[in-house]
């Protein structure tokens, strides 16, 4: 296989993983085509914050300087002084308010997902409202991937120059909907709790939380008590179950299709590892593609090695987070806390 000079990479999903990959690939001269099923960048009513800690240096290295220069716009609390205390993650006893432990996360930054998406979308052309429904790699050319969009015909991606065409697909988010709700194998799933019949959103969800959360120390209780039930903010209250998926080997169609981030290994949020592994995926994936493009290395082999590492790392991290959640449930008697990885070893890279 002769590597072409400017291959096109199709990215399915403009979440943080897809956008980071797009920025990194573009910087290295790849063409990127990005599809996302959502109608526009900020259409979701919900947002959350993410601590970028051990993967921050790798994350920074993937971005062009112009995008990295805007990173501070994504910081959740722009008024925070980044002193020693801000570089820790404290865990408190909610009833007494006592500090149980704090782990060091020096140099880390807490961003909002929405803010970082805004920053990472800079300069990218994203095709919103376009859901990918099918990937076809059976066409006559071994280098092409046909991407089918909902309600539209297929797009056959190829190198812009035509001749030595090569299309790669990085899927970010493609399986989220199905892999969490439709587990093919009972043994590969885990979830923080089974869902009782409780109100899931709006004022009744806030009321349910207020009734369930009583007797906390005053500092914590005040957060619950002051949450408004019935003003315009109520539409932003949701109670959700968290899901996880233990990554499995998959058919990468001779290295033409692969996975990264939550599409590959959604994990429970304990120890905040999900995005750190997504960043690691993107870094490794970009290195793999550069090898294929610049040294004509065998795509099947190189992307296969990427997949192997991603599946092994992602599944271990997801299992570790699941175990951590089980210990957190036991933490009420404090013996669980002592056994938690975050109490013993902090929030550093565990896998
Ligand atoms: C409350 C919370 C706190 C967290 N805290 C941390 C933390 O502190 N540290 C940490 O490292 N991680 C944390 N995480 C995890 C982190 O948020 C995720 O790992 C990361 O955001 C995943 O990004 P992604 O791009 O892989 O997936 P997503 O954000 O799910 O993006 C996938 C995108 O793909 C699109 N899509 C899906 N299917 C299709 C399709 N068929 N066609 C077109 N588009 C499609 C979707 O619309 C979506 O935009 C946290 C997560 C939560 C929920």
UniProtKB/TrEMBL annotation:
UniProt keyword Flavoprotein, yes or no: yes
Protein name: FAD-binding domain-containing protein
Pfam families named in the record: FAD_binding_3 (PF01494), NAD_binding_8 (PF13450)
Alphabetized UniProt keyword annotations: FAD, Flavoprotein, Monooxygenase, Oxidoreductase
Organism per entry: Sordaria brevicollis
GO molecular-function terms, A-Z: FAD binding; monooxygenase activity
Entry-linked InterPro entries: FAD-bd, FAD/NAD-bd_sf
All residue ranges annotated as the FAD-binding domain in the record: 251-309
Cofactor(s) required, per the database record: FAD
SUPFAM superfamilies listed in its UniProt record: FAD/NAD(P)-binding domain
Keyword set includes Oxidoreductase: yes
């Amino acid at each position: 296989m002769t590597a072409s000079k400017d291959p096109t990479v199709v990215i399915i999903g403009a979440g943080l993983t897809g956008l980071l990959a797009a920025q990194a690939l573009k910087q290295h001269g790849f063409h990127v085509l990005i599809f996302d099923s959502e109608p526009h960048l900020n259409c979701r009513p919900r947002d959350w914050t993410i601590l970028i800690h051990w993967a921050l240096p790798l994350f920074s290295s993937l971005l062009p300087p112009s995008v990295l220069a805007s990173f501070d716009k994504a910081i959740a609390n722009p008024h925070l002084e980044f002193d020693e205390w801000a570089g820790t993650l404290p865990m408190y006893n909610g009833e007494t308010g006592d500090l149980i432990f704090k782990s060091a996360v020096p140099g880390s930054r807490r961003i909002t997902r929405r803010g970082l998406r805004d920053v990472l979308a800079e300069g990218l052309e994203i095709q919103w409202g376009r859901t990918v429904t099918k990937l076809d790699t059976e066409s006559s050319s071994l280098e092409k991937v046909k991407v089918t969009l909902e309600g539209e015909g297929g797009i056959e991606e190829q190198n812009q120059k035509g001749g030595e065409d090569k299309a790669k697909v990085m899927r970010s988010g493609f399986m989220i909907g199905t892999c969490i709700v439709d587990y093919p194998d009972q043994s590969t799933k885990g979830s923080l709790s089974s869902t009782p019949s409780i109100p899931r959103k709006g004022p009744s969800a806030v009321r349910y939380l207020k009734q369930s959360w009583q007797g906390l120390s005053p500092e914590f209780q005040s957060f619950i008590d002051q949450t408004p039930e019935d003003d315009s903010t109520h539409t932003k209250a949701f109670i959700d179950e968290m899901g996880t998926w233990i990554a499995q080997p998959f058919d990468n169609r001779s290295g033409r299709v692969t996975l990264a981030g939550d599409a590959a290994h959604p994990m429970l949020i304990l120890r905040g590892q999900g995005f750190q592994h997504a960043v690691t995926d993107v870094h490794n994936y970009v290195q793999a593609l550069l090898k294929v493009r610049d040294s004509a290395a065998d795509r099947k082999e190189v992307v296969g090695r990427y997949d192997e590492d991603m599946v092994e790392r992602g599944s271990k991290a997801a299992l570790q987070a699941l175990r951590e959640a089980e210990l957190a449930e036991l933490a009420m008697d404090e013996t669980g806390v002592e056994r938690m990885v975050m109490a013993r070893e902090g929030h550093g890279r565990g896998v």
